[in-house]
Amino acid sequence: MNIVKDVVPIAKKYFKYQIRHNDYVNEFKEKQKQLKRRRQDVEEELHAQLRKPGKIAKKEVQAWLEKADQETAEEVIEDLIYKGGFLTYIFSSRKLDERTQSLTEGIFKQGEKYTSADELVVDTPSIEYWETVFVERQKQLELRQKDIQAKLETQLMQPGKIASMEVEDWLKKVGQQIPIKVEDLINQGGCSSLSNLRRKIEELKQIFEQGEKFTNAGESLVTDVYSSEHGATVFKEMQEQLKLRQKDIEAKLETSLRQPRKMASNEVKGWMEKASQQIDIKVEDLISQGECSSPSNLWKKIKELSQILEQGKEFTNADVILVIDDHSIKGFPLVVEKCRGRDEIQEKILEWLKGDKVARIAVSGMGGVGKTTVMKNVHNQLLNESKFKKIIWVTVSKDFNITVQQKKKFDILQFQKKIASSLELEQEPDHENETKLAALISQRLGQSSFLLILDDVWEPFSLEDVGISNPVGNNGCKLVLTTRSKDVARAMDCNVIHVNPLPPEEALELFSEKIGSDVYECLEQQCQECFLCCALYPEDYEIKKEELIEYWIEEGLIYKEGKTREAMNWKGHDILDKLVNNCLLQSVKREECVSMHDLLREMALEINPQFLVKAGISLEKLPEEHEWRENLLKVSLMRNHIIEIPSSMPSPRCPMLTTLLLSDNKISTIPEAFFEHMLGLKILDLSYNYQLCKLPSSISKLEKLTTLLLYECESLREVPALSNLVGLKKLDLFRTSIEELPQGLNMLTNLKYLGLGGRLSETLDEPLQNLSKLQHLLVNPDGETEFKWETIGIWGKLQNLEKLDLFSLHNLNMVFGEVGAIAESASLPAGTFSSLQYISVWRCNKIKKLCLVRWLEYLQKLQTVEVGKCEQLEEIIGSESKEGEKVTLPNLERLELTSLPLLKTIYSGSLICDSIKKIAIFDCKNIESVFWFGFNPLPYLEYLELTILKDLKCVFDEEGLGLSPHVPPTSFFSLKEIRVEGCDQLKKVFSSGWLLHYFQSLETIKVKHCSQMEELISSSAHEEEKVTLPKLKSLELTILPLLKTIYSGSLICDSIKKIAIYGCGNIESVFWSGFNPLPNLEYLVLSYLKNLKSVFYEEGFGLSPPRVPPTSFFSLKEIRVEGCDQLKKVFSSGWLLCYFQSLETIEVSRCSQMEELISSSAHEEEKVTLRKLEELKLTRLPLLKSICSSSSVLICDSIQSLRINHCKKLKRIPLNFPLIDNAQSSHPPSLKEIVVFPKEWWESLEWDHPNAKDILFPFCKFQLIGE
Prior knowledge:
GO biological process, one term: defense response
Protein name: NB-ARC domain-containing protein
Keywords: Coiled coil, Leucine-rich repeat, Plant defense, Repeat
Mean pLDDT: 80
Coiled coil: 25-52
Pfam families: LRR_8, LRR_RPS2, NB-ARC, WHD_DRP
Distance between the termini: 105 Å
């Protein structure tokens, strides 16, 4: 009984704890469910945001989603209860309660902010910023050119001296780059994307860097006349350079030729032929045969080789096109949908075109009835028939009215240029002469029968003036035009086919399919208003998305009090997506733009008759007085040729007018009283009027004005008083020539955007004191201005400032430093810079520090820092103590540093920025270590780029970073891409194999032009046997002359898809020691590895039939080997090929010692199988004797192309000839071409099959010149 008495209380307590424990378990599981639901909501919203163009997910969001997955897994509770996590109910209950609270206060609460779309994604960079970088790089290059030319002239005064080839080549490169105008690059399409423009900047940077050594005091720019021995060495080196350049051009040409109906240009063909001839020359023969027995003659040969090399450089530029249209092609198919209800009309047009009686046809009808669609279908059908040798489609459009008398010459010329473009006459001369261009068009059209289709003709015109031969039935030439006017059809002497509107039922069905029933009406009011505003732009105009969203913000359509500018931008993209998805706007080839169909544009203008829109129609004067109706709301006259507003013109009486768009005209003067009767005006856009030098005083009376845009008004020197414009929210004076700040600027207390430029010499302190709502401040004075920036007491007032751009402030010593009020007090007002997210500082040449460390507490929302071209900058953050403090920038996501020659460190103390995603450092020569003292791991860093850091000695170095096995496992957890280029002191990227444990998300490694690089990953005796990079997809190593190995340990990267190694002459074996098979490798390129002795070699990486997993090289599709002069074979054994059954392309070229493609042995099988091989290309392999063994047959049933040239010792092609139904041999079924050189070699081949030559002859193409 005593035992029972003792046990009962214990049992009661036990069951009590068990019940409570179950409650805790249920609470924890319920919290898991809530977290799972929140995670699902966040993921759905993230996917919706990522469908918007130009958006990427924030790294912190991705990390939160992964953490939420971990916390909601069923195994969590099991691990806690059943696997030793809790030993008793009491202990487990307490821990469960703590874990539930941790979930609630931690990850669940953190996820609250991600329920807002604004917190999920960020924008990608824009192109405008890099235009400024390009121009500055050109100026820098020009100054260096002048210094080197002066030095060269002095040294050439010495007798017996000539300029060195290296100097001459450099000066020639510079001479080509300096005249380039960035505007031309953009307009011509060569740099229409950010990546293309950055490549051009990269090219300028490389040329600038190449010239640095010529500026050194001890560097000689001249040389003696070459000796024969010296000349021979130079000649061989230049041949090697020419080989590399030819390879690059071949690869680019091959890619271009994949486009339909393209052929290589004659210029490219000629250069390739010259390059091949020069590469084949043996300099010893030149000398021994007497052709270059004297040094001077050899010098001439070297100069000739140098010129060919330089000519080829142009072809490597991204914006240089290597192909032209094949003139034998009659035309290109047009994208068109099926024509509904127009079959009879289409058949009638085809009947007239195929016959000889009707030569001119006009398809007439009201807008939107389907005239263009009918003719596109006719056009595409005739492409497949032989009636016409050439079919030309030109959209005329009312933008180019040919008979407007005051614009006749201009419009005819524009129309002629469209036809010339369709006839591939773009490169012909005299394109600004209308008569000569007409003759060129007439000559080209007269060469064959043609069909000319002119879409959307608004006025009649003379065919003879344009250069169109008279279409008559018996000459095979015909004309079809579409027009809304029967008068035009009659005036052009055409047979008319009229297209009537569809019956109401069919029209409604068609509208429902194309646009959606009542789409416009179903859109919310905000989207409707945004849609209507798109009609203010010219017809067929490609509107930049960012420009359109900015205009919506200016109109107040997406403005909400208290919203950040960033949030409004995101909302703008939401609206844009809705309009595109509902077919009210359409995407165009330029991803950053949208356009509006002309029918929808007319519909929008009909919906709102209070719009007056005459945009982009070549107007030279304002609309007549009667057109300025009193009820007008918006007027758009943008993109015209209006030169002046006559002083005699009275002020239009438009009291309701809110928007007046006069941008991109040629206006030089505006009458003083012009705006007197437009007192309701809210938006006035006069930007891009380059001749405008003065504004009328009547602007000062526009008290309701919210937006005044004057950017790019280069001649504007003064602005009238703005003190009455208290509602102004945006004022842009960027790239004007104003000499004083506008009077009353300090009264504009509602201003959110302020852009300043010009020849200003005033301090901004007083004007900015009252601008507390300012969100974006841009200051870019004229380059010669001594702009004052002395007292920073104003900063406490700018609590809403989100973005700060500072350019060319030549007397600025520090952006955030000891000046004014902060020098006298220990702290700034509360809220100072509490909204600042972005700061960009360029060409401020006196600053030595961006800011002092004490400022960081006010910059806690900072997301982006860009600093460039600041010649005296030594530190980004200046420490105020010897040891440096520990500080944080918790929201910093992007750090970009460019051309800071004196920069030594980012911060000498301990800087924590856990949110950073991108670090890019370019041309900062003094930096020795990337990661600052007191480095803290960067768990969200995704992208690291280090370019031209001449003194950089380490990147990931355990001693430099303070890394050890105790480092948190999230260090570098998110890093996906590493790019290292031009770091000549760097000997390794990773100082130890164990470091790779922190880089488990790494996908791309690119290392280029590091002259001292010896190892990618260093190793030591105590290294682990195996390390992994499980997500690595691409490895590219380029011009690393001392690189011996990637890693001497065992490196497992099962996800890698691409390995490309170029110009790494010290590498003897591609696959590292302890090699592990690569089941996902698709692409392998080995180029100019002079010491490479093996590729796929069983002894080299331990392969043997019993040991190799069946997935080894399972995905490999393409192998390219070039210029590997020590390599004698690619595959060391035929049995290896069983692991390469996905192989589609094998290309081997310029390997001087190559003897066998596939080596053989006594026990080899008779058949070698590569079932998916489509292309085999063997080029310039002088010692190649066999593709496989003499007794083997190569079975490649998918082979399409076989290209062999300059393989003189190859005597046998071991193709398999399959049997067809009648037991006769046939060619491989997929074979399309056999391209060989020379023809004599083909004739001398020995064949296993007696009829092989006859079977294959129909597929043969004999080159006149070898590749």
